[in-house]
Amino acid sequence: MNTLRPGTLAVHAGNEADPATGAVSPPIHLATTFRHGPAGERVAGYEYQREGNPTNDRLREALMALEGGEEALTFASGMAAMTTLLESLPAGSRVLFPDDCYSGLRMLFSEFLPARGLVVETIDMADLDAVRAACATPLAMLWIETPSNPLLKVCDITALAGIGHAAGATVVVDNTFATPLLQRPLALGADIVMHSTTKYFGGHSDVLGGALVFARDDAFARHVAHRLHVTGAVLAPFSAWMILRGCRSLGARMAMHCANARKLATFLEAHPAVARANWPGLPTHPGHAIAAAQMRDFGAMLSIELHGGRDAALAVAGKLRVFTNATSLGGCESLVEHRASVEGANPRSPQNLLRISVGLEDGDDLVADFAQALG
Ligand SMILES: *Cc1c(COP(=O)(O)O)cnc(C)c1O
User: How far is CA 328 from the centre of its chain?
Assistant: First the structure.
């Protein structure tokens, strides 16, 4: 099975016909408890939903095959996956995070993790010399996000994994923006891949979920699994089924997402109202060469910085008709968001920046919508 290409694995992994009925689409097992023998002997391997259930196991199998890992765990959300992983580190552990990253991760490491005894630092991961220097002090974990949110910064996973491992650190990649269809961090040397399956895996803006995929089913992976099963931020079976359903069309969707993003980014970069278009597929993007080497295509998240500051950005966001003003990403519908307006009291995103999740509409309609909004 694992010699198959990602597009085929997305359709088939964990999708064996139901042995009881031959049903080609999987059943949803909602049972919270499973019959066992008088001395607790398991009948079919399951005992209690929080510790594992057949619908989740199909999704775990698909995630392992797609990312090329030995173990996969599913969570109630991407944030639950991150939190469970980071809180599995012993107190006193030092963790390096990227300077540009998902805002929920930033809140987690600035507001919550220090109180749990973790030592937290941020760094520009595109600057390998800076990362090397930071690794001179003992490091437990190096956290990579590429392409990053919302600036679409790209960093070199192979190089960072080498630097992190030389320092004895576990190397984690948030692969939400790329998906395993475009980028496979474990094959590039990372130890753990994290996903918000809420985004492209689910693909329809209607299910929340998270995942971790481990290169090795080692003592640390078992510790994180045990922590998940005890602390309980598990994925509901119905959600697992929805995410698995999304997974079956992931290859087709990513191809069209990427083609639409290319068309829109090319248009936006050339538009006089746009000061800067951030999309790794543009040859002018500072991380283009690295992205071209480590990704099959460049994804469908982009951001633009407008001449005319905050007012210009809000005016454009207000004039778009096909794009909906909403947070999140990875659904069929295209979304736009003025990130600085939704990042709380101390926004990090530039005031003139709009983040765009390019959807599955006809790409020419997306370009035309921005053409009319930019004026
Ligand atoms: C959405 C997102 C998360 C958090 O996932 P939730 O499912 O919303 O908890 C983490 N990382 C990235 C890159 C995301 O886009």
Answer: 11
